[in-house]
Amino acid sequence: MATTIVDMKDSFASENDLLAAKLKVQFREQGVFVVNILGTAGAGKTTFLIGLLEALRPRKSYVIEGDIASSIDTDILRRLGIDAYQINTGGTCHLNAAMVGGILGRMRIEGPALLAIENIGNLICPVEYDIGENARVVVSSVPEGSDKPYKYPAVFQTAGAVVVTKTDLIPYVDFDLDFFTKGVRSLNPSAPLFQVTKKERNGYTPVADWLRARIQESYPTNGIV
Amino acid sequence: MATTIVDMKDSFASENDLLAAKLKVQFREQGVFVVNILGTAGAGKTTFLIGLLEALRPRKSYVIEGDIASSIDTDILRRLGIDAYQINTGGTCHLNAAMVGGILGRMRIEGPALLAIENIGNLICPVEYDIGENARVVVSSVPEGSDKPYKYPAVFQTAGAVVVTKTDLIPYVDFDLDFFTKGVRSLNPSAPLFQVTKKERNGYTPVADWLRARIQESYPTNGIV
């Protein structure tokens, strides 16, 4: 009987997709659920992450912070007792699976756990790079304006959930939530849309409920949440 | 006597630098001063541009709007009577000299004139791409937070001027102007730092004065401003 040798690499669109698939296998074996957080510079990704972890209270969690430079966000998270690790890309505008794989070697992750990864601040480059995540959350802040889905469609199209941050600023800026929602819906009919502000901690409960359900779908019995 | 043939291409770091140098020659011959406006998504680049043109009142001006998708900003500018043209990059996170050269063919620019180019919304990719500009202005909004120079150093390092926008939001957010200024100064000791809000049109006068001086340095007699 003839042996068929299948080169698995051929079925991946890129080297990154291959590495991301390897990460997914590793995370699955460890019982780690991974959420990839995307948003522009200053959208409030770190503040959102803190509110989300407080509302979700996973049994164990780790954070990877992506930035061009500095460890400002990692320092903030560590001061709060969160187990956070910094990737500095120098000038690269996205994280990739190789960078995530690289830092995992230093992290000694023990599952079951949640791993939240805050990507590099922009709405463009991170879209194309799978970093082994189970879910992708796009954060878009009120002062950025309600036209972002129209100007940066791909990131909203690939979102598992969309979170509008800094809603306490709505009285002071031009932000048309209907226009924003219409833009998201035209690209992505199914992603839930949440609104949060750091001034109202209860607002994080619906996002945490959504993420808890996603985690339990992936790991019905391992007790991350 | 021997003829020395110099391959000029060797002295340019990249194809883009070569094309940018050609644009600079073309702009110089036409008497066109070019300002390249950088900032993250939602920083208020278009609003800044409108305020700047109103305060500067150049004899003639053109605008190129860079976006991944949509013509929202170009439509806004045209409704104000500004001669604006849209580049959509699809997914590319910066403009380059080839894109600018391409659209110039459709614009029929007549100098002396100011050409303002609003780059793609992010603080990372546009840094590396000379698009033939005389001056680069970096726009950073108050709600983004005061840590941006520390997280995205290169864009502040290469700025000709830095403009803090949306200063009317200072009472409602955490923004430490001293920390921001210290970050900019550590990277760029000479770039002037301006503060503007669309609610106070007078705030644009110092930026317009700065740009007028730069234009008159480049073109002492052609009367753009």
> What quaternary form is this?
homodimer
Query: Total number of helical segments of chain A?
Result: 8
Strand fraction band of chain A? 15-25%
Rg of chain A, Cα atoms, Å: 18 Å
Gap from first CA to last CA of chain A:
49 Å
* Global morphology of chain A: globular
- Count of strand segments of chain A: 7
Quick one: biggest sheet of chain A?
7 strands, parallel
The residue ranges of chain A in which pLDDT falls below 50 over 5 or more consecutive positions are none
Structural class of chain A: alpha/beta
Molecular structure report:
2 copies of one chain form a homodimer. Chain A has helices spanning 15-30, 45-56, 72-79, 97-107, 148-151, 153-157, 177-187, 205-218; strands spanning 32-38, 61-67, 84-88, 113-118, 135-141, 161-165, 193-195. With 225 residues, the first copy, chain A, is α/β, with parallel strands linked by helices. In chain A, helix 3 (72-79) links the parallel strand 2 and strand 3 (84-88). In chain A, helix 2 crosses helix 8. The longest helix of chain A is centred in the N-terminal third of the chain and has 16 residues, at 15-30. Chain A is globular, with a radius of gyration of 18 Å. In chain A, 49% of the residues are buried. The model of chain A has no long low-confidence stretch (mean pLDDT 95).
